[in-house]
């Protein structure tokens, strides 16, 4: 268990986990649970003798907290070889040329020039980006020729166009 960074969990109730069918044998604890040793939220488990039904073993349970997580479903991009990419490069090049670097004499003036550059890149990016919604059908290789060929097949319903 050490190899997997696990340690023996402490049950919330100190009750047996195995119940003997023979009245001469005593009930005992033979079912154990090992949990991640570095977790404060997963530090104990519950034993449920009333859930046994016909089994001689009890159920062991643990509550695992699941936090809400924001899953990004869109991304910002500039499509390669698009009009927006050309505009982005042209606008960015012009903006960079206009940044005055002749008076960089100290760290403060260097910081101002760098911040101006960063701001220019951000504004130019935001002006030309395209928001792309990510779905299970999103494919990075899909391009305009794929759209054109799919439309051709949908129009003709030809097996040759499908291929």
Description:
By secondary structure, this protein is α+β, with helices and mostly antiparallel strands. It folds into two domains: 2-61, no CATH class; 74-162, no CATH class. Helices cover 33% and strands 15% of the residues. It is built from four helices and seven strands; from the N terminus they run ββββββααβαα. The chain has a three-stranded mixed sheet, with no helix packed on it. The chain has a two-stranded antiparallel sheet with strand order 1-3. The longest helix is centred in the last third of the chain and has 22 residues, at 107-128. The protein is elongated and about 90 Å long.
Could you give the topology of this structure?
Blueprint: E1 6-8, E2 10-11, E3 34-36, E4 44-48, E5 59-61, E6 74-77, H1 83-97, H2 107-128, E7 130-133, H3 144-156, H4 159-162
Parallel strand pairs: 2-4
Antiparallel strand pairs: 1-3, 4-5, 6-7
Helix pairs in contact: 1-2
Can you tag this structure with a few keywords?
163 residues, alpha+beta, 2 domains, three-stranded mixed β-sheet, two-stranded antiparallel sheet, 7 strands, 33% helix, 15% strand, elongated
Q: Approximately what portion of the residues adopt beta-strand conformation? A: 5-15%
Return the structural class.
Answer: alpha+beta
Order of secondary-structure elements = EEEEEEHHEHH
Q: What is the first-to-last residue Cα distance?
A: 55 Å
The average pLDDT score comes to 85
Total helices: the number is 4
The strand count comes to: 7
Biggest β-sheet description:
3 strands, mixed
Instruction: Name the helicity range.
Output: 25-40%
